[in-house]
Model the fold of this input.
Amino acid sequence: MNANSSAVAINRQESEVELDRKPSLDISNPQVRFEYSLSAILGFNAIMKAWAVQDEDARKLIGNIPPESYEEIKSGKCAEALSEDQMIRVSVSVRSEP
Done:
């Protein structure tokens, strides 16, 4: 391992520690879910598009929801907050790789 590799490894470890220090959202709180649902939906839609995920598979990933509900989410015009389960599912997709 050369000096540059060591520096990268140390910087990466420091970055991971910083990520762990950020406070997490209380997604059990309906108000928090309401406030962050639009961002979660937009992020989920962007990931599904980038990964070329078919609508049927995306519906399963977000919680096996009916096609009509997924169309609302896909359009970004969902009037209701995502459920706690759906927020977790979006979080997992954000932290995953295709």
In short: The CA atoms of residues 3 and 73 lie 48 Å apart. Confidence is low (pLDDT under 50) at residues 3-10. The chain has one domain: 26-94. Residues 26-94 form one domain.
